[in-house]
């Protein structure tokens, strides 16, 4: 997994864009679905989803900002692939504080995963593959349908 420093840096850069974006947990879910999905997905197809867009990238403050962000997101994807290949994968789950109580909320990661599953809906939702459906059930249940655009 990327270091906490790099993950925080990605989060900071996403915030600095001034655009509405996925958070890092959603982004990790998206990249996980793409990495373990049944079809290859090019970065130019998934990068707009980080910015909650169907196509194209928003104008950012500077071309250097976009270049740095694209490099970090590519590194993040490569790290997800590496973790999956090494069987060392763990989803990036948000820690939430509500009414003085801390808990882990997998909803963001699950929603990001379901966005990534859009690239091969027939394969991800193959009703004849009961094992896959069993594995996907908690992800579908915990995802926010409003966040899966």
User: Helical content, roughly?
Assistant: 55-70%
Gyration radius (Cα, Å) is: 15 Å
The ordered string of helix (H) and strand (E) elements is: HHHHEEHHH
Straight-line N-to-C gap: 27 Å
Strand fraction = 5-15%
Query: What is the number of E strands?
Result: 2
Q: Count helical runs.
A: 7
| Overall shape | globular
Mean pLDDT score: 88
Give the strand line-up of the largest sheet.
1-2
User: Could you give a short account of the major beta sheet?
Assistant: 2 strands, antiparallel
**Uncertain runs:** none
Summing up helix and strand content along with how strands pair, one would put the structural category as mainly alpha
How is this structure best summarized?
This protein is mainly alpha-helical and 149 residues long.
Please give a structural write-up.
It is a single chain. The chain is mainly α and 149 residues long. The chain has seven helices and two strands. It has helices spanning 4-16, 24-36, 43-50, 63-85, 107-116, 121-124, 130-142, and strands at residues 94-98, 101-105. Strands 1-2 form a two-stranded antiparallel sheet. A hairpin with a 2-residue loop joins strand 1 (94-98) and strand 2.
């Amino acid at each position: 997994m990327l270091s906490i420093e790099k993950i925080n840096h990605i989060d900071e850069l996403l915030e600095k864009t001034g655009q509405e974006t996925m958070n890092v947990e959603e982004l990790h879910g998206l990249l996980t679905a793409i990495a373990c999905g049944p079809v290859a997905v090019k970065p130019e197809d998934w990068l707009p989803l980080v910015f909650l867009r169907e196509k194209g990238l928003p104008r950012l403050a500077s071309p250097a900002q976009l270049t740095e962000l694209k490099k970090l997101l590519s590194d993040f994807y490569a790290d997800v692939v590496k973790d999956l290949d090494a069987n060392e994968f763990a989803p990036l789950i948000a820690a939430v504080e509500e009414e003085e109580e801390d808990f882990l909320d997998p909803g963001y990661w699950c929603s990001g995963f379901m966005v990534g599953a859009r690239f091969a809906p027939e394969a991800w939702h193959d009703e004849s593959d009961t094992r896959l459906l069993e594995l996907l059930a908690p992800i579908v249940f915990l995802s926010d349908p409003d966040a899966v655009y």
